[in-house]
What we know:
This is HNH endonuclease. The chain is α+β, with helices and mostly antiparallel strands. It is 22% helix and 19% strand. It starts with a strand and ends in a 6-residue tail after the last helix.
Amino acid sequence: MLNESxxxxxRSWIAVNVANVRRxxxxxxxxxxxVVSPEDFSTYDFDDWRELSKAxxxxxxxxxxxxxxxxxxxxxxxxxxxxxxxxKFSRRNIFERDKNTCQYCGRxxxxxxxxxxxxxxxxxxxxxxxxxxxxxxxxxxxxKGNRTPEGATLPLIRRPRxxxxxxxxxxxxxxxVKPSWQKxxxxxxxxxxxxx
Length: 196
Ligand SMILES: [Zn+2]
């Protein structure tokens, strides 16, 4: 039960992530989030939710001292950033961040036509980090060679950064979405600009 999925909304009530119950309740307990009732959008802090849980007879976690209802949706009460450490530094997430777009010529490509490029080449001490890895198409990659963007006069279209939020992919969403999440997960969500 602690591994059930909970939808996380940011302060603007936009769906930004999914966490397990343990993580979601921790955020609520720590005051970083409130539980949302999907029926009427009312919000509850930990104590309110615990109080309300007394009357619930199913879907609860029982601890030694009390029982608590499993939340399905929570809303963050703090500015973005709680999830910073949860974004996995992975090839897939770099593709998501750069939206399959070569960061030098700005054109969109198929995944297999793109490579990961070290902005500052490894031979010059460049490391594999969010700030130093970008997507590049093969022609740009070849043109750049073992040089910096300045050295190759190939400026980046934007400075690579660690994204603050990474939406889960469309596939996984359709697998895990719950009826109670539906109204929070709309088209607008997918157009949200990832800001740093
Ligand atoms: Zn390119």
